Amino acid sequence: MKDTLGIGLIGAGWVASVRAECFQRLPGVELRGVADIDQDRLRHFANRYGVADCHLDWHELISRDDISVVNIAAPNYLHAEMTMASAQAGKHIICEKPLCLNLEEADLVIDTCHRQGIKLCYTERLCFAPKFVRAKELVDAGGVGEIYNIRYSKKGGEPTAISAWNKEQAGGGALVDIGCHGIEFCRWVMDKQPVRSVYAQLDTHRHDNDSGLEDDAIVIMEFGHGGTALIESSFALRGPSQSRAEIFGTEGVIYADLLGGLQCFTEKGTGRGSEEWLFSSYKSIWEQGYPQEIAHFIECIRKDVEPRECGEDGRAVLEIMLAAYRSAATGQKVALPFRPKGITRPVDLWCQT
To answer: Do 148 and 118 share a domain, yes or no?
Structure first.
């Protein structure tokens, strides 16, 4: 197909496999190459998804003329370098969270993409998950009145990324790995209004390792125009994984369980003739929002419009995470804007060991 967009994947781990599933189900795109430093993992990935072009050096992948979009699914510490190199090579970018590990990198990445005329898509699947999209529609319709509190909890027993317990590669523990989802979800529900302050508590309860990283995080955000958000992120859970949101308004409440159902009670309704909705689980990656997210990004690249989740959103999430680590270290609220200097990775603000 003449209009087919060629996709290159940097990384052949778990999240890359999810992205490959999405790309292969989407018309008008073709997964044309993959790069990973682990030869066995690369070979397994290529065989599974029928990718003929494989590289141990990601620079070779982004130099291909028939690749228009690069999906960066590599360890966190490489995101900034890979994004800037891909942008300079003229490739549009889908970057997995976090955008990068400090604000200097974030500003440089965003500026480079703007100057090169490159679309920088920041992955936040919760903003595309059907039940959460429905919850946002109910909020926007005014069904639950003015939102005064949002609570999001994502907990499990272990991270999915191999590098998650490597401080130099990951940059942080549960907060960086999964807390970022809750932060952006709450910003999105609140129409991305500015965050005024951040308070956090971090700890390690279950994983006795030498990483110096937290496996449990609690973050409270105050929004500039009113309302608060509570985000719980943990790898210390003994039991089934969970991903749940609660949205409290002056005229109703919404409970949305990503792995379960969605319930909403509203005193006045939203014009649909009912005061309560219940949706069952989808039981697929569709439920998680992955295919919808990729489809949206590809459409934005084709039509040259700004994606719903972009580099600026990734920067905003990063700034909040940095403030959370500082808060956990000091026991104090941290006001935003917050721009610490000389920080290599977020967790450095909490523990220098």
So the answer is: no
